[in-house]
Amino acid sequence: MPAATGPGGLAGARHQHRIDARRLIYLHGFRSSPASFKAGLLRNWFEQRGLGGRFVCPQIPVAPREAIRTLERDLRLTAHDALVGSSLGGLYAHCLAEAHGCRAVLLNPAVHPSRDLARFIGTVQAWHSETSFDWRSDDVEALRELESIPVSNPARYLLVAATGDEVIDWRTMTARYAGCGHIIVDGSNHALDLFENYLERVIRFAQLALPAPSD
Q1: Does domain 10-205 have CATH number 3.40.50.1820?
Q2: Can you give the pTM of this predicted structure?
């Protein structure tokens, strides 16, 4: 299946009021960290252009309510920011985009995390370090509240969903974000190992206000 962009995506964005983004903020997934593969690709893109200060990738607290509170406090988001969220970070990006009017790119986003992450209740090993953390039943309940937040303006969202995702069915993602812009990646996986192929399209959708190239 070829990659495709839906009616609310890149082409549709031209018909919306443009708000150029000042920062691109990457939100990692469950068990992940700022050391993730996708965060690294984005970080390198900005650093290679001398724009490292325009990319933000925080370490997200484990507990969902604390995660949202911390992101709200530390990021001080406005509509002039753009969010990129992966997996559970995609759900957080959705919540913050609704609260602040940001544009958001969702990479294989968690759609029913209260169901899918219930099996992890207990002690969980992080991906990029030797540390572990406690995942509790009330964390799962908090996710149930967050996943019910609707999409108010589909034109502000771009979904990137891999048909080979072994964790979340891509059809569930497209149903959840029906009407939003979408890129369907043929194959790949939940980690979206083909993300580099779509990096420029993600940056373009974010509508970053970038300096003009020098002569």
Answers
A1: yes
A2: 0.88
